[in-house]
Design a protein that fits this description.
PEGA domain-containing protein; alpha+beta; 10 helices; Serine Threonine Protein Phosphatase 5, Tetratricopeptide repeat; 330 residues; four-stranded antiparallel beta sheet; signal; TPR-like_helical_dom_sf
């Protein structure tokens, strides 16, 4: 069975040269001579279309139609755009060709069939400007400026994800991403885009950095983990010490087991000491950061004009050693 679409395609591929080969009647004015550049581009597009090289054919037909929008060129362009999934563009090409064709041209039937097939597959979008938009505002859809005549009216658009941008003089670009389903109709009010973007901008500075209290909890947690490690290694040191006491005297060890225990005990003792000091510093620093967080003292600051507080952090020397202390004066 012959594919009807390709039969029609064969007719359209011949339509461009044929329409200029007609012999004028005595009562009709001679047809205008076709633009040489447009005709050459059409021929190149026809050759590429025949070998299904749509990436080459579509730009050729598009440029030819831009120079001279003949109905045959527009029909071929619509077919090419449909093949590559540019359905909204194909719809525009077919409807423009219908407007240019004579009322009884047999190609109108095919063009209307393609329009009927494409319509359920495209979405429809209406973009509404802000009420206070200045005259020089620019609206972009997927990086391309939307013509003023398309603002506030429903236009066909390919289904899928699209980005709408609003450019106001002296203001940052406002953006909104939308996802359209085939056959869906959507209205996008750029008033909502403006309000949502401003709200986002206002929130960003306050959430840029974590609070001192949050950092304090993290540092304190790390310090507590270090203290736990110190306690575990300290317990292991005691176990090694008991072996050394059994296998060694003050100067020598009687077995390899005693020698290994003495070596391991020395290493574990060093680890225990280091992690204990690191843990103590971490816990102290964490407590200091939590107590000096601005949010934790805001309530006290508003309780009275004369109220004041101070947090101090430093070493405390004891008879048997030293400790890290944090204290607060209210």
């Amino acid at each position: 069975m012959v594919d009807r679409n390709w039969v029609w395609t064969g007719i359209f591929l011949l339509s461009f040269p044929v329409q200029f080969a007609l012999v004028p009647t005595a009562s009709a004015a001679p047809p205008p001579k076709p633009d040489a550049r447009a005709a050459a581009l059409f021929r190149e597009g026809r050759v590429a279309m025949a070998r299904e090289d749509y990436a080459t054919a579509c730009p050729r037909f598009e440029e030819s139609a831009r120079i001279e929008p003949a109905p045959g060129t527009l029909l071929n362009l619509g077919l090419c755009q449909e093949k590559v999934g540019q359905l909204a563009h194909a719809l525009h090409s077919f409807t423009t060709a219908i407007d240019k064709l004579p009322p009884h041209d047999e190609r109108i039937l095919f063009a209307r069939e393609r329009v009927a097939a494409i319509l359920p597959q495209v979405a429809r979008l209406t973009v509404v400007l802000p009420r206070t938009a200045p005259p020089d505002v620019r609206v972009l859809r997927d990086g391309q400026e939307v013509p003023p005549e398309e603002l506030g009216v429903e236009v066909p658009i390919d289904a899928g994800r699209h980005q709408i941008e609003l450019e106001l003089p002296g203001e940052p670009t406002l953006r909104r991403s939308i996802l359209l389903a085939p056959g869906e109709s959507r209205t996008v009010s750029l008033d909502e885009v403006e309000q949502k973007t401003q709200a986002t901008v206002e929130v960003k500075p306050s959430s840029a950095w974590p609070s001192r209290a949050t950092v304090g909890y993290v540092v304190g947690g790390v310090g507590a983990a270090s203290l736990t490690t110190s306690l575990i290694t300290g317990a292991l040191v005691l176990g090694k010490k008991s072996i050394v006491d059994e296998e060694c005297n003050e100067s020598t060890c009687r077995s390899q087991k005693g020698i290994d225990a003495a070596s391991a005990g020395s290493t574990l003792s060093t680890v225990s000491t280091v992690t204990f000091v690191a843990g103590l510093l971490g816990v102290g620093a964490g407590v200091y950061l939590v107590l000096t967080d601005e949010g934790s003292s805001s309530d006290g600051a508003t309780s009275g004009a004369g109220a004041s507080s101070a947090t101090m952090f430093g070493p405390t020397f004891l008879p048997g050693g030293a400790a890290l202390s944090v204290w607060r004066q209210f």
